UniProtKB/TrEMBL annotation, chain A:
ABC transporter domain ranges (all copies): 27-273
Organism: freshwater metagenome
Residues covered by region (Disordered): 1-24
Record-level Gene Ontology MF annotations: ATP binding; ATP hydrolysis activity
Keyword Flavoprotein: no
Protein name: Unannotated protein
Keyword rRNA-binding assigned: no
One cellular component term from this protein's GO annotations in UniProt: plasma membrane
Pfam families (alphabetical): ABC_tran, BCA_ABC_TP_C
TrEMBL record, chain B:
Keywords annotated in UniProt: Cell membrane, Membrane, Transmembrane, Transmembrane helix
PANTHER family: HIGH-AFFINITY BRANCHED-CHAIN AMINO ACID TRANSPORT PROTEIN BRAE, HIGH-AFFINITY BRANCHED-CHAIN AMINO ACID TRANSPORT SYSTEM PERMEASE
GO cellular component: plasma membrane
Record's protein name: Unannotated protein
Length: 284, 331
C-alpha cells in the first residue's frame, strides 16, 4: 500500500500530540467553545488541518464531531473562539460565504434535493452562474452558453461517479449510497479547496463503499484537502493520513492512524462503551 | 330551464374578471409556495395593498392612475420586505404565521375609523378612479353572444387582463426554467444544502417573496379597476385560501396551473349555482329540499365536495405529476 504519498508526507515529521502544529495548515481553529445550556458540546483548544491531506475526525457518539463541523462551516456559531481558512478569519461568516471561500461540506443525513433531477442537483453546485441572478434569468441568451459548459463539467463528474445513467431521474429515486455519491459529486461542482464529509459511509453498502473510498483518495491526488467524520474504523485506517480523536467535546489525541488506534486514552474513550462487542468480533 | 343562459353565465365566468384576479393571485402564490416553498398565507394582503394603492391616490390625492400603479408596485415591495426581513431567516412556519396576521392587519387598518377620510373605513372606496383606464376602451358596446356576454367595461378588463396574465406567465416560465428557478426549487427541497453550495438563500427567498407579492398586488389592481370600488372585507383570509385552492387545483409548481385552476374554480362555482338556481325556480328541485336563498351556500358545499374528491383521486392537481408528489421532500 502506497498511502503515504504527496500531501501525506507531513505525518512522518509532525508531533503526534493534541493541537500539534502542521507544516502547511489550511484550517486553524483556536479555543472554540460551544455550549448548549449547561452542556459544553465542543471545547477545542487548538487544531490545525494539513493542506492536501486526508484527515479523519473520529470519536464516540456525542463527542461533538458534527457540532464542530457545523461551527467550522458557519451553520452554528461558537460561544467563543476563532478559526481561519486559508488565513481568512471565519468568525461570523455565513455558510454560503464559507462555501464560496472554498470549504464545502456534506451532511450526515444526506441532503439530496429530492424533487430535482440528478443533473439539476449537479448544475446547482457550479459557482458564479450568470443565470442565477434574478434580472438575468429572464434572458436565456445571456446564460445559455455558460449553462452548457457547466453541464459538460457535470457530465464528466457524473461519469466518474457512475451516476450518468441516472442523470434525468429525481434524486429521490436514488439509493441511500447513491445519494451519498451524488452529494459528494455535487460538492465537487463548487470546486472546493477543502471538502468536509460528515459520515460519508453511513448506510452505504460495501461495493459502493469501495468506490467512495477511491473518490476520496482521488480528491487528495487532485491536491484538495479532506476532513471527514467517520465511525467505520477500517475506512479510517485505509485512507486517512492523519486522525484527530474527539471525546466529550475535546480533542484527546492526534496522529497517524496506527499510533492513534494504539493510544490507551483513545481505546478507553472510543471503545469503552462497546468493549465487549469489539473484542469478540476481533477475536473471532 | 334555460340551458343556453346557464352556458352563457358559466363561460363568461370561466373567462371573466374573477378568473383573472384569482389566476394572478395564484401565480404569485405559485412563485412563493410552488417554486420556493414559502408558506405565504397573506396573499390577500398583497391584493389589498394593490387595490388600495390604485384607488386612494386617485380619489384622495388626484394623482394619475398610471402613477398609482407604480405606487402600488412600490408598496407591495415594501410590504414584502416588511414581512420578509424578520421572518425569512426563521423556519417556514414563522412566515405562515406572520403573513396571515399581516394580511389581517392590512385589512383592519383599511377598515378602521381612524383612517376613514383616506381609506373609506368599512365602506371602502367607490368612485370613478379607473376612468383613465376605461377611457381607452375601444369596445364600449361590450360583447353579447349566445354563449358569452360581457359589459363594455368588463370586456376591456377581460382583454387587457388575460394579456397581462399571458405576459406574466411567459416571464415566469422563462425564469423558473433558468438557473435562478433551479436555485428556487432547490431551496424548496432543502435550504441548508443550497447554502452549502454557496448560494445566499435569504436573498433568493426575499426575491421570491417580492416577485410573488408584486404579482399579487397586480391582481389587486384588476380587482379594484374591474369594480371601480375597493371593499376591505373582500380581502380577508378566504381570498388567500381560494387562491391556494386555485393553485392546488391546477397543480403547484406548474406554470399553467394558476390559469387553468382559476378557470375551473369559477366554472364550477357559477355552473353549480346556475344549475341549482334554474332547478329551484323551475321546481325541478323541490322547495323543501333547497330554497332559493340557500343556493349561494349550497354551491360552496358542493364545491367543497368536488375539491375533496379531486384531492382524493388527483392529489397532484390537473398538471401535477403524481410520482413527483409522492416524493416526500423530507423522506
Amino acid at each position: 500500500m502506497q498511502k503515504h504519498n504527496s500531501g501525506a508526507d507531513f505525518a512522518l515529521t509532525t508531533s503526534q500530540t493534541p493541537g500539534s502544529s502542521k507544516p502547511d495548515p489550511i484550517l486553524i481553529a483556536d479555543k472554540i467553545a460551544r455550549q448548549f445550556g449547561g452542556l459544553t458540546a465542543v471545547n477545542v483548544d487548538h487544531v490545525e488541518i494539513q493542506r492536501g491531506s486526508i484527515t479523519a475526525l473520529i470519536g464516540p457518539n456525542g463527542a461533538g464531531k458534527t457540532t464542530f463541523f457545523n461551527l467550522l462551516t458557519g451553520y452554528d456559531s461558537p460561544n467563543s473562539g476563532t478559526w481561519s481558512f486559508n488565513g481568512k478569519a471565519l468568525n461570523g461568516i455565513p455558510p454560503h460565504k464559507v462555501a464560496r471561500l472554498g470549504m464545502v461540506r456534506t451532511f450526515q443525513l444526506t441532503k439530496a434535493l429530492y424533487r430535482l433531477t440528478v443533473m439539476e442537483n449537479m448544475l446547482l453546485g457550479a459557482r458564479g452562474q450568470k443565470g442565477e441572478s434574478v434580472l438575468r434569468s429572464a434572458f436565456p441568451w445571456i446564460w445559455r452558453s455558460q449553462e452548457a459548459a457547466i453541464q459538460e463539467k457535470a457530465t464528466a463528474i457524473l461519469k466518474n461517479f457512475k451516476l450518468i445513467e441516472k442523470q434525468d431521474d429525481f434524486a429521490a429515486a436514488l439509493s441511500g449510497g447513491q445519494r451519498k455519491l451524488l452529494e459528494m459529486a455535487r460538492a465537487l461542482m463548487v470546486e472546493p479547496e477543502m471538502v468536509m464529509l460528515d459520515e460519508p459511509m453511513a448506510g452505504v453498502n460495501p461495493a459502493l463503499k469501495q468506490s467512495l473510498l477511491e473518490h476520496i483518495k482521488e480528491l487528495r491526488n487532485e491536491g484538495k484537502t479532506v476532513l471527514f467524520v467517520e465511525h467505520d474504523m477500517d475506512m479510517v485506517h485505509e485512507i486517512s493520513d492523519w486522525v484527530i480523536v474527539m471525546a466529550q467535546g475535546q480533542i484527546i489525541a492526534e496522529g497517524t492512524p496506527a499510533t492513534v488506534m494504539g493510544n490507551s486514552q483513545v481505546i478507553e474513550a472510543y471503545l469503552g462503551a462497546h468493549h465487549d462487542t469489539d473484542l469478540t468480533s476481533e477475536g473471532a | 330551464m334555460d340551458i343556453l343562459f346557464i352556458i352563457q353565465q358559466t363561460l363568461s365566468a370561466t373567462l371573466g374578471v374573477n378568473a383573472i384576479i384569482f389566476a394572478l393571485a395564484a401565480i404569485g402564490l405559485n412563485m412563493h409556495f410552488g417554486y420556493t416553498g414559502l408558506l405565504n398565507f397573506g396573499q390577500a394582503g398583497f391584493l389589498a395593498i394593490g387595490a388600495y394603492s390604485v384607488a386612494v391616490p386617485v380619489i384622495s390625492f388626484g394623482i394619475s392612475l398610471w402613477v398609482a400603479f407604480l405606487i402600488g408596485i412600490f408598496n407591495s415591495i415594501l410590504f414584502a420586505l416588511l414581512l420578509g426581513v424578520p421572518t425569512l431567516r426563521l423556519r417556514a412556519d414563522y412566515l405562515a404565521i406572520v403573513t396571515i396576521a399581516a394580511a389581517e392587519i392590512v385589512r383592519q387598518i383599511a377598515r378602521s375609523a381612524t383612517f376613514r377620510d383616506f381609506l373609506g373605513g368599512s365602506d371602502g372606496i367607490t368612485g370613478k378612479f379607473a376612468s383613465e383606464f376605461f377611457d381607452l376602451n375601444p369596445f364600449k358596446q361590450g360583447l353579447t353572444t349566445p354563449i358569452l356576454r360581457f359589459s363594455g367595461n368588463d370586456l376591456w378588463v377581460v382583454i387587457t387582463g388575460w394579456i397581462l396574465v399571458a405576459l406574466i406567465t411567459f416571464i415566469m416560465w422563462v425564469m423558473v426554467n433558468s438557473p435562478w428557478g433551479r436555485v428556487m426549487r432547490a431551496i424548496r427541497e432543502d435550504e441548508d444544502a443550497v447554502r452549502s453550495l454557496g448560494k445566499n438563500v435569504y436573498l433568493y427567498k426575499m426575491q421570491s417573496l417580492i416577485i410573488g407579492g408584486v404579482i399579487g398586488s397586480i391582481a389587486g389592481f384588476v380587482y379594484a379597476l374591474s369594480r371601480q370600488s375597493v371593499q376591505p372585507d373582500n380581502y380577508g383570509t378566504a381570498l388567500t385560501f381560494f387562491a391556494y385552492t386555485v393553485l392546488i387545483l391546477g397543480g403547484a409548481a406548474r406554470v399553467f396551473a394558476p390559469i387553468v385552476g382559476a378557470m375551473i374554480f369559477w366554472f364550477l362555482i357559477v355552473f353549480i349555482e346556475q344549475v341549482l338556481r334554474a332547478g329551484v325556480t323551475s321546481n325541478i328541485i323541490p322547495d323543501w329540499l333547497i330554497g332559493v336563498n340557500q343556493v349561494g351556500q349550497i354551491r360552496f358545499m358542493l364545491m367543497g365536495l368536488g375539491l375533496m374528491l379531486l384531492m382524493i383521486f388527483r392529489p397532484q392537481g390537473i398538471f401535477g405529476d403524481k410520482k413527483e408528489l409522492a416524493l416526500d421532500a423530507k423522506a
